[in-house]
Design a protein that fits this description.
- The structure is a single chain.
- By secondary structure, the protein is α/β, with parallel strands linked by helices.
- It is built from eleven helices and eleven strands.
- The strands form three sheets. Strands 3, 4, 5, 6, 9, 10 and 11 form a seven-stranded mixed sheet that branches.
- The protein is globular, with a radius of gyration of 21 Å.
Length: about 325
Amino acid sequence: MEVEIRHLRIICAIAESGSLTRAAKTLRLSQPGLTAQLRRIETMLGGTLFERAAQGVRPTAFGELVLARSRAVLPAIDDLVFGLRASARNRTLRIGTVNAPLLAGLLTWLEATHPEAVVTTVTRGASTRLVELVEAAQLELAVVGDCPGFELAAGPGVVLQPVASEPVFAMMAVGHPLAARTEVTLAELAAEDWIAPPPDDDRIREYWTTIFHDAGLAIRVRHEVEGTVLLDLVLAGRGVSLCQATSRQSPGLAIRPIAGNPLWYRHLLAWHRDGPFPAVAAEVAEQARRAYDEASRRNDAYPAWLAGDSNRPNAPRHSR
């Protein structure tokens, strides 16, 4: 992870409140969640920012230095964003996405139905960041995702609209011994070296680890990378990984269902209550579902899974 503007805002909020508990309420986070984020920020910056005091927390000398620079930077960034937002609001639809298979189809529909607008896209590694950008009115729409038990939280200004849930599949090189199987088990995957993305605020890696732990197993991550590097290492036979069932088939890549369908991923849309999408909520959600259905044919494994035993377990209920 790299230091982002929101990390600076978190540091300032803690300093201004003088308490992790009060800062967590201001930021609409749980206290354990805020504590975990602070630890990650301190790791990234290379020093302790706050020390516990009788009445809460207070900045360390290093923390004072970071606070001084954060307070100098944030107002300029806010002015920049406000100016850009004002100039672009009436002519641009800004769309954010994680690794979403339905984005291309959704963009085609948006451009056809809003010919007067310039449709732009940005990507972020974690859905949590995209939801924050929607809440700050820096995006009109975001395609995001979460997992059962690790659902996205949104402020009162953001609507989260579920689109589809899909199983998580395993992927490996076609020459890997597990590629000869029609499906693989958690135990078989746990016995392999893994290639996995680093933990992030979306908590997907934590979800994977939890599912394996509940089965009495553990993931042995040998290579912690993401994006095309992750795919390259899988194709090179350096280990196994997990992917969305809608992942695109690549030459040399084997995508296999996991027995019992223990892992799931949910696609959602996020938009601001005061933005342009609430008025066409049903239509945009339907178009997203159609785009997802089209994407479900991007590899051979998922259509076969969908056409399989009708007694397959349904996606687990999400708590939100």
